[in-house]
Amino acid sequence: MFRMDPLLPTKGSDEFKPFIRRLPEFKFWYSMTKAFCIAFVMTFFSVFDVPVFWPILLCYWIVLFVLTMRRQIAHMIKYKYIPFSFGKQKYTGKKTSASSNGPRGD
Questions:
Q1: Residue 42 — φ and ψ, nearest 5°?
Q2: Could you write out the three-class secondary structure of 15-66?
Q3: d(CA 18, CA 49)
Q4: Per-residue pLDDT for 85 more than 80?
Q5: Name one GO biological process term (predicted).
Q6: What is the pLDDT of residues 35-82, one digit of tens each?
Q7: Which of 13, 48, 78, 96 makes an SS bond possible with 42, Cβ 3.0 to 4.6 Å?
């Protein structure tokens, strides 16, 4: 049976741009599994049961969110993307005349 698979470039002038991940999938899942196991084991020891005042925890979450989303937020601002509906222009379509929308009198 004949198969039509895409071929890899054989000459230096051929273009081949593979998708290279910044973090390979195996390393991601390995580090996530390791982090989960460490966090799960830490729940069994009372030394890690630290009381936290909720406003401090909220401020910490906001700081982490802003630091991790800084690039995405800058990209949204650069291209004037507003994720909320107020203040946006809405497309309403073409306005048609009243005579063309009326019932036909055939």
A1: -65, -25
A2: CCCCCCCCCCHHHHHHHHHHHHHHHHHHCCCHHHCCCCCHHHHHHHHHHHHH
A3: 46
A4: no
A5: retrograde vesicle-mediated transport, Golgi to endoplasmic reticulum
A6: 999 999 999 999 999 888 999 999 999 999 989 888 888 888 888 887
A7: 48
